[in-house]
């Protein structure tokens, strides 16, 4: 038996396996049930939307087919309506041989061409106000048989229809637009419909005179041949109604008691499209078709959900404990350490094995972070020492040259120049020392350049000239000291030839950088010479001051900043210095 005091010291916590199963039950099984329910609801809505979209597309195809045939008949009417030569002949009221020739050689051929210029079986009736043209017709006017007149025409006088209601009520003429589809005369008996349109004399557009009337009778089953209810589903129906709600054509059968045009959302999905100018095409799709599909999907989703629940339940019982949330936390912290984010910590406070791992990882992160900080501070100190060393290497060289010049002035007794040079030298070193600071304001750097140039103009007089082009907005920023003077000194020592030399110092703000340029009109240098200057091996005895400034800038600001040189022999040299626009505290 285990002693009571030892048993009481053992940590008490819920085993990891139970924790994993409880989490699994909450975050896996419940979402599966919710997903199954919402999937079914969304699928039912999707079926409705998809069915409506598919039927809408089918109806648009049917609509295009019908409107194509309607426009084909209207095109035939336009052939006669817009034929100016035909209208001209119909205006001539002469009888005799001329009328016979016009009828047989001009008028009748145009009518024959028009009635046969389509694939539809059209029966055409022409009524002319000019009674000098003889009537030509087949059959009896009162007992017409349009089915026997297909692809042919009858020519009547307009007086035959002047008392007809459909002619008297025909809309007022608007040139090129007035036409109407109606069932007139015996159209309904023979399952037909007619396009009615005037023939007008357009010689005076403000006074359109009716010189005739046209009627193009078409079989309804031929006009609506593409209208088939089976294309949208069994049990469906398609109905075409005119502007007065009268049924022109129907494909399929609706149950008794279902009125056309009424919304029957409990039994049918109703979709409507306009056809032509004023007709309506309505599709009735029974809801039972969609409900059958919905029931199949409902059963399928239910089976899938049940299968997922069974599989997930058994899988959760045997999944390794190492795939727990705590293990993911450990992996996350380790990845953060690998990426350099050593401030990441684990907040797990349990007494089990994960608590011990978390404590060890947190302690390791603190130790590594502290070690890196120590190394970083050491590197900073080394970098500052390098900067001080480079700075110390510049000043003695300039001081030696200046003291040599002072010595020559004293030798020749030029006391005034000697005094100015000593004062400028003192000012230069006062600004250069700057209480031991490496970073100085740009204003002070420019004052150093000016003090240096005062010394040079004292030595050389008007042979040396300098021009300043400084953007006032850069004055407020800081720079490391002595980055301009070495290049001016280099130009005076190595680029000067002839009687004089001109130097330009510019400073501009470019985005988040400051760009200085020192431009001279001296001897210039070759590309190989420039490459040699920046090569630490080949340029060991050449361009020391240039490399010095470039190294100090990159040590302080980074490798993206520094010095670049552009030059052409015999033309001059441009030195560009780029530093960031910083104000250091």
Automatic annotation (TrEMBL):
<keyword id="KW-1133">Transmembrane helix</keyword>
<dbReference type="InterPro" id="IPR050640">
    <property type="entry name" value="Bact_2-comp_sensor_kinase"/>
</dbReference>
<feature type="transmembrane region" description="Helical">
    <location>
        <begin position="299"/>
        <end position="319"/>
    </location>
</feature>
<feature type="transmembrane region" description="Helical">
    <location>
        <begin position="21"/>
        <end position="43"/>
    </location>
</feature>
<keyword id="KW-0067">ATP-binding</keyword>
<dbReference type="Pfam" id="PF06580">
    <property type="entry name" value="His_kinase"/>
</dbReference>
<keyword id="KW-0472">Membrane</keyword>
<feature type="domain" description="HAMP">
    <location>
        <begin position="321"/>
        <end position="373"/>
    </location>
</feature>
<keyword id="KW-0547">Nucleotide-binding</keyword>
<feature type="domain" description="Histidine kinase">
    <location>
        <begin position="480"/>
        <end position="583"/>
    </location>
</feature>
<dbReference type="Pfam" id="PF02518">
    <property type="entry name" value="HATPase_c"/>
</dbReference>
<dbReference type="InterPro" id="IPR010559">
    <property type="entry name" value="Sig_transdc_His_kin_internal"/>
</dbReference>
<keyword id="KW-0418">Kinase</keyword>
<keyword id="KW-0812">Transmembrane</keyword>
<keyword id="KW-1003">Cell membrane</keyword>
<dbReference type="Pfam" id="PF00672">
    <property type="entry name" value="HAMP"/>
</dbReference>
<dbReference type="InterPro" id="IPR003594">
    <property type="entry name" value="HATPase_dom"/>
</dbReference>
<keyword id="KW-0808">Transferase</keyword>
<protein>
    <submittedName>
        <fullName>Sensor histidine kinase</fullName>
    </submittedName>
</protein>
<dbReference type="GO" id="GO:0016301">
    <property type="term" value="F:kinase activity"/>
</dbReference>
<dbReference type="InterPro" id="IPR003660">
    <property type="entry name" value="HAMP_dom"/>
</dbReference>
<dbReference type="InterPro" id="IPR005467">
    <property type="entry name" value="His_kinase_dom"/>
</dbReference>
């Amino acid at each position: 038996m285990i002693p009571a005091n030892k048993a009481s010291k053992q940590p008490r916590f819920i085993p990891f396996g139970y924790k994993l199963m409880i989490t699994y039950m909450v975050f896996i099984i419940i979402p599966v049930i919710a997903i199954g329910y919402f999937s079914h609801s969304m699928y039912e809505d999707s079926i409705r939307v998809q069915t409506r979209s598919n039927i809408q597309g089918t109806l648009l195809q049917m609509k295009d087919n019908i409107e194509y045939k309607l426009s084909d008949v209207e095109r035939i009417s336009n052939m006669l309506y817009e034929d100016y030569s035909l209208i001209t002949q119909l205006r001539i009221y002469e009888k005799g041989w001329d009328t016979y020739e016009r009828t047989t050689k001009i008028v009748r051929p145009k009518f024959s061409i028009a009635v046969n210029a389509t694939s539809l079986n059209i029966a055409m009736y022409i009524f002319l106000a000019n009674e000098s043209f003889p009537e030509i017709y087949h059959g009896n006017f009162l007992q017409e048989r349009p089915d026997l007149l297909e692809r042919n025409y009858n020519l009547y006088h307009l007086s035959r229809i002047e008392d007809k209601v459909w002619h008297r009520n025909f809309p007022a003429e608007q040139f090129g637009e007035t036409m109407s589809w109606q069932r007139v005369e015996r159209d309904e008996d023979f399952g037909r419909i007619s396009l009615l349109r005037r023939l007008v004399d357009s010689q005076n557009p403000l006074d359109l005179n009716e010189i005739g009337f046209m009627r193009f009778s078409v079989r309804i089953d031929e006009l609506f041949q593409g209208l088939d209810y089976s294309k949208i589903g069994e049990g469906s129906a398609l109905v075409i109604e005119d502007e007065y709600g009268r049924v022109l054509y129907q494909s399929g059968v609706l149950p008794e008691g279902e009125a056309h045009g009424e919304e029957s959302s409990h039994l049918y999905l109703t979709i409507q499209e306009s056809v032509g100018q004023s007709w309506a095409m309505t599709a009735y799709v029974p809801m039972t078709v969609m409900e059958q599909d919905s029931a199949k999907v409902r059963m399928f989703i239910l089976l899938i959900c049940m299968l997922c629940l069974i599989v997930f339940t058994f899988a959760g019982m045997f999944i390794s404990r190492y795939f727990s949330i705590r293990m993911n936390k450990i992996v996350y912290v380790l990845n953060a350490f690998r990426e350099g984010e050593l401030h990441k910590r684990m907040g797990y406070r349990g007494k089990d094995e994960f608590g011990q791992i978390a404590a060890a990882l947190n302690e390791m992160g603190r130790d590594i972070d502290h070690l890196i900080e120590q190394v970083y501070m050491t590197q900073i100190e080394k970098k500052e020492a390098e900067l001080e060393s480079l700075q110390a290497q510049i000043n003695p060289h300039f001081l030696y040259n200046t003291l040599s010049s002072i010595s020559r002035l004293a030798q020749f007794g030029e006391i005034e120049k000697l005094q100015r040079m000593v004062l400028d030298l003192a000012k230069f070193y006062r600004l250069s020392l700057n209480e031991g600071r490496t970073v100085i304001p740009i204003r002070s750097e420019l004052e150093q350049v000016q003090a240096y140039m005062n010394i040079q103009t004292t030595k050389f007089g008007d042979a040396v000239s300098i021009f300043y082009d400084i953007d006032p907005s850069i004055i407020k920023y800081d720079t490391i000291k002595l980055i301009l003077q070495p290049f001016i000194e280099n130009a005076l020592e190595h680029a000067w030839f002839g009687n004089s030399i001109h130097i330009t110092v510019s400073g501009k703000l470019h985005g988040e950088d400051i760009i200085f340029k020192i431009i001279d009109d001296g001897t210039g240098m070759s590309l190989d010479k420039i490459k040699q200057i920046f090569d630490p091996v080949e340029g060991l005895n050449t361009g020391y001051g240039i490399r010095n400034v470039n190294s100090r800038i990159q040590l302080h600001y980074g490798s993206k900043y520094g010095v670049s040189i552009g030059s052409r022999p015999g033309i001059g040299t441009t030195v560009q210095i780029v530093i960031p626009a910083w104000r250091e505290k």
